[in-house]
Amino acid sequence: MPSYEKEISRFEGLNTQVLGISVDSVPSHEAWQKSLGGISFPLGSDFYPHGAIAQKYGVLREEGISERALFIIDKDGIVQYIDVHPIEQQPDNEEIFKVLEKLQ
To answer: What CATH number does residue 84 fall under?
Structure first.
């Protein structure tokens, strides 16, 4: 998420809305973004019912956490790109920008 904040003007230049969603609570989101000095894009809490969004997208683990997943959804609500990778790995922003540029 911090890397998306650093690139927010580039996302905006591609007419893209960044949205973060996690299974954490709203208070934990608030504390997390304060620890980063704030972020400019919305964070959604998939806390209650716990993991409902993650489950619908197929990325909720049995232990109640979600995979680190990235979805690019176009203006018509169609998922155009999915990247699910190990939680300890950061997704490659350049790959994301390549996909976004193709959708323009």
So the answer is: 3.40.30.10
